[in-house]
């Protein structure tokens, strides 16, 4: 097998359950089984869908800031009997170049940029979804 470099900003890496790894087109597929490594350039908040919450019910997500700076917001932990989410009920985590955070499985999260940034994330996309943020 010939090993060649992969441009992480032009491809995602799909890690299959059987241990195989493949470069795939950079399309987030919530129906795909196996882990996905994604790197992307983000110039504006629109590039990180800041007006939406994201959730991955099947696995945690590692979010890493490679360059620049991002603000990762975690929605409130939902517990049976809790009232509906209220605007402002979110936890802010600041990531600078070379840092990462682990978003708990099933926790709503979103990002905003401090400026142009390069971001790397790793998660299991199966079942993932976006929800429009109220007022976003």
General description of the model:
This protein has 136 residues and is mostly beta strands. It has a 6-stranded antiparallel β-sheet, with no helix packed on it. A 3-stranded antiparallel β-sheet has the order 7-6-9, with no helix packed on it. It is built from no helices and 11 strands.
First and last CA, distance: 48 Å
Shape: globular
Number of helices: 0
Q: Helicity, in percent?
A: under 10%
InterPro entries: RmlC-like_jellyroll, RmlC_Cupin_sf
Organism: Streptomyces phaeolivaceus
Protein name: Cupin
Write the layout of secondary structure elements.
Blueprint: E1 12-15, E2 21-24, E3 35-42, E4 52-55, E5 61-67, E6 69-74, E7 91-96, E8 99-103, E9 109-113, E10 117-123, E11 129-132
Antiparallel strand pairs: 1-2, 1-3, 3-10, 4-11, 5-8, 5-10, 6-7, 6-9
Q: What features would you highlight for this structure?
A:
single chain, 136 residues, mainly beta, Jelly Rolls, six-stranded antiparallel β-sheet, three-stranded antiparallel β-sheet, globular, RmlC-like_jellyroll
